[in-house]
Amino acid sequence: MNICVFLSAADLDDRYTVPAREFAELLGRGGHTLVWGGSESGLMKVVADGVQESGGRLVGVSVDFLAAKARADADEMVIARDLAERKALLLEKADAVVIMVGGTGTLDEATEILELKKHGKHNKPVVLLNTAGFYDGLRQQFQRMEDEGFLPLPLAELVFFAKDGVGALAHLEEWSGLQ
Fold first, then answer.
1. For the chain, N or C: smaller number of CB within 10 Å?
2. Quick check: 63 and 83 in contact, CB under 8 A?
3. Residues of 140-172 as b/e, b for ≥16 C-beta within 10 angstroms?
């Protein structure tokens, strides 16, 4: 399965890097392909290293102004001309999406992917990997949106919240088995 992972390129502490590495190793051992922003820095590097060292493939989609930070030994690397094209290519190359910890770029990617799903532009599973409760506030906000009628379909049909990588991957594999 080609699994797109949206995540930070920042250097983070162990409470985020250790679970990210564990999830990456699960992906690699499972024979999955990581589709990611292509960066050779921060948490993006941690995940790419874990996938590659565990036998998985790497498909990166960088953007022209970040091309100097792109991973040189990826199995495939595409350089998009802007962030909008990058997001479209990431989704196009993926069978499923996992959103890990990140900043405003990750949040932008997450909300766009969910908006596209809400409007039926894709039906790929989306998992928010809620490492160390990072997305508790966002989950609460999404629940409020559902409760107050802002979502045209149930939250559970838009996104699955996983507390760890094992749960995230199990959800994706169950979904792919149903397809």
1. C
2. yes
3. eebeeebeeeebeeebeebbbbbeebebbbebb
- State residue 178's pLDDT score: 63
Supply 148's token pair. 């107050």
pTM for the predicted model, two decimal places: 0.94
Region 146-166: what's the mean pLDDT? 93
Within 8 A by CB and 6+ apart from 86, the residues are 37, 61, 62, 63, 80
Q: Which two tokens stand for residue 159?
A: 């996104």
Question: Which pLDDT value is given to residue 6?
Answer: 97
The dihedral over CA atoms of 86, 120, 106, 137, expressed in degrees to the nearest 10, equals: 170
The helix/strand/coil state of 127 is strand
Beta bridge partners of 166: none
In this prediction, residue 83 carries a pLDDT of 94
Cα Rg of the chain, angstroms: 15
Neighbours of 123 (CB within 10 A): 9
Q: Is residue 134 over pLDDT 80?
A: yes
Q: Could you tell me if 51 and 58 are in contact, meaning their C-beta atoms sit under 8 angstroms apart? A: yes
Q: With bands split at pLDDT 50, 70 and 90, how would you rate the model's confidence at 90?
A: very high
Question: 179 pLDDT exceeds 60?
Answer: no
